[in-house]
Amino acid sequence: TYGNESYAPNNYGDFFSNKEITLRDALVKSKNTVTVDLGMQVNIGKVMNLASKAGMPKVETAYPSMALGTAEASPLQVATAYTMFANLGDRVLPMPITQVTNGEGTTVVSPQVDRKPVVRSDVAYILDDIMKDVINRGTAAQVQGWGFRNVDGKTALAGKTGTSRDGWFAGFTPELVCVVYVGFDDNDDLGMKGSDSAMPIWVDFMQEALRRNPQ
What we know:
Number of helices: 7
Oligomer: single chain
Strand content: 5-15%
Largest sheet: 3 strands, antiparallel
């Protein structure tokens, strides 16, 4: 209940066990009701303020559904926010130009990276580990069938699926963040899960990127 309104989110797969569940398993299995309940308990306005610090658009009024990502954001803004996880708590703004040189090869401009701490490193570490579990055994487990998996001693893969009227997959390694969005520009319902629409594109890109630049 929010003011005079009521909100009833669905879980991934429209399945409700009515049993106690850990926060880790709730995120790994996309139990949206748990996410919204937690957001309301800690204050959804504070959640959105933290999201804004991480690089998401600032909102004037926060609603319960925003705990699930219903505020408008571009893929680049979402990717910016996910740098907070890849950098263990530090948000890094995108830099389309890293260096400008003249005809003789002398550097004329070399912009400084805009990096700012958003959450404590230990908090980010736990969230990263949970999102590794999303790939290991959660809503993104399908990537393992495409030969993309977490193996001890190799680059860690972590991420999160997103499904509403469109499809998202946001995933990262310690060196690379990639966010894929699939949807209609008129906001029509795509009718596909993020794991079926955006995630295959993410896997294709990441496999080739990691092949060219092993981490």
